Amino acid sequence: MSFPTDLEIAESANIQLIKNIADKLNIDHDDLEYYGKYKAKIPLKYIDPEKIKKSKLILVTAINPTPAGEGKTTVSVGLNDGLNKIGKKAIAVLREPSLGPVFGVKGGAAGGGYAQLIPMVDINLHFTGDFSAIEKANNLLSALIDNNLQNRKFSLNIDPRTIVWKRVMDMNDRSLRNIVVGLGGSNNGITREEGFNITPASEVMAILCLSSDFEDLKNRLGNIFVGYTFDKKPIFARDLKAENAMAILLKDAIKPNLVQTLEGNPAILHGGPFANIAQGTNTIIATQAGLSLADYVVTEAGFGADLGAEKFLHIKCHYGKMKPDAYVIVATIRALRYHGGAKKGEYEHPNLPFLKNGFENLEKHIENALKFGMQPIVAINHFATDSQEEIDYLIHECAKLNVKAIVADEFTKGGDGMTELAEEVVRCAAHCGNDFKPLYNVEDSVEHKIETIAKEVYGGDSVVYSQKAKNQLKTIYELNFDKMPICMAKTQKSLSDDETKIGRPSNFKITVREFEFAAGAGFIIPVLGDMMRMPGLPNVPAAEGMFIDKNGKITGLS
Question: What is the pLDDT of residue 318?
């Protein structure tokens, strides 16, 4: 049968006014800040610490994905609909999409099929302007740095060679990774090497996501490390008196965004860091707002659990003083075929031997969940190419590990296809005895924290540091930045730092090529292997398949 496109589904949906969604959450209409009829910002006064203690937090993560992803957002949206379908007051709290994947290869991040968020096109494009505000705040600091280099009267004596702060842009543009600024003579600034990261990798994005309130946001912005003076004194954003102006640009961006699912259930979108190069979860403020407004909050952590879930548990839970009550691992049969050796074009067809070989990837993620003190539930995100034989095998193998595996059929059935998973999540949140415990203490040495992740989460044997990384590690200790969580920058395609090592690799070491650190956000970033914090476009970008007609109707955007 032919299945309607995401756009056709959204256009035919009975989209409710955002006021009606607010009614479900007992939000006063006068408190909303409207961005049109279908999206609005929620004031921070709705965060209620006492209500937060009583609500249940559900973390959705996944196995290592194929290049197209395995549908965590779609499952998260569907699970939210499923929970509402069985009579629970639930809300999805998710990240905002980046334009990089939208116009690159992965597409948007508003779900799909009958489990998507609306207004989808708005969400996947400029939405409420949060990303733009983050870019502007980030690049304001860059402008202030370069202005101070040029300023003879009020110079901070910054050594341009030591500046680590980069500009950002929300687009995949590899040509901006390494550039030179200040060309054209003395009136155009000091010539120096510079570069761009993609906006989701900006420390300002991380700060927005990890701040507890506006004062905390401002303090963290002031703690951004910029570089050194010529006499080796560290320089921070506060030395440039940048934090207030940056915070002013973020005064609206700090407020969570309220939207809805196709079934008219509430959802909050806020923040959008990637999980392979940043911490990969929505804002602490949004999660707190969700827990204050509903009894069940469905949130996700980007890419595989070795990235998003590990960072959620070690970074977000640390700063947000929270822990999940249920832990869902999204798996697809096509991805397990891929991890079992199927090549492109093969993993879209039933093949039980490939699935059997690839199960070890899911098995490792199950083991990791148990290490964290969490009893996982496996959501088998259903595709039309899944055979019943493969589904039965997967359910049976999970059962042997004392793990419940349930088919998630949200794409074609919406909330109706998610009620079984919803019931199990409710049961597990109440009776599985989940008691999250971090694998390391933030007071541990940097090397110990990295080694713990490499060995316990990835399954590696050892960690190797380049000479550049060793030198940067000394700097981290000299600046007393070592007592912070770790935020690995690593490929999402493998448990290792080598994307060709599929399945459950063994007998491998990880290589720390270099370090970055986010003193304001509060984490250390070991960059592993060939990871880049500014992606590039594929040979055929998704942008080439998009079209807008004279009436403003957009096709090809999903």
Answer: 97
